[in-house]
Specification:
elongated, 2 domains, alpha+beta, 10 helices
Length: 278
Amino acid sequence: MPDESSVLTGHTDVICSTSIERIVTGRNVALERIKSVIQQLDDLSILTASIGGGTAKDWAMRQGHRYDCWLTEKTQAAIKAITCNIDRSVWRDLMLKSGMLALMDAQARDQWYKSLEGDELPAISEDNILSTFRQLHHTKHEVFERGIINVFKGLSWDYKTNSPCCFGRKIIINNLVTHNRWGFSLNWGWRRDQLADLERMLFLLDGKPVPDNRGDITTRLMEHIRDNPGLSVYEDNYFAIRYFQKGTGHITFSCPVLVDKMNDIVAKHYPGMLAKEL
């Protein structure tokens, strides 16, 4: 049976069982101390109110921020909210360190973030952490492949360049950019996410670490458009992207081997669609 760290991440240097134990222990100790602080503040409020000095909501808050602190609320409500906030942050940190976010397409990441904001957020415990990441590890290949399939399904077959059977050397996507009298700008929304997903898949298929989202293709393309208003083409190691005033983007892949790997995944999901010779 694989050890816990390999179950979580597929490698052994990010999250191990001792780290999980430290996280859970630290979280529980912190919550107990926070609860003690709330009770002490409540006792002090009783004392200061009895001498006309008001409660902690009066003397512990900055002017105009009276109700911004959970530490001055009733213990039960405060601990529930604080626990939820701490657990939400820990889940985010664990997901980032596990490397799982890099495998997720925009749809999967959106589902994950929405689950963190829901009312049924699982408490941080060793069992919950291990079961969650075992499940993520179990489905990571499925999620990764779905990212490629979603990009493929999002192509418009109105363009002859876009084959309904496979990725060609060039694809055309709609609504990538907007053009007005000030020049080009990169659109926000699902098309932008799709472009980021496409780059992420190419990095993973190439066996290279995925760039931070602050430096992904959408950020670099946006900066390129901003800094080069007279140009309408962008190039890097994976793409040449030519964008047009009507909003379309013509994406030419620079690595045919990686296109073949994407088409292997398309063929797996749609048997018989991929031509024998591309």
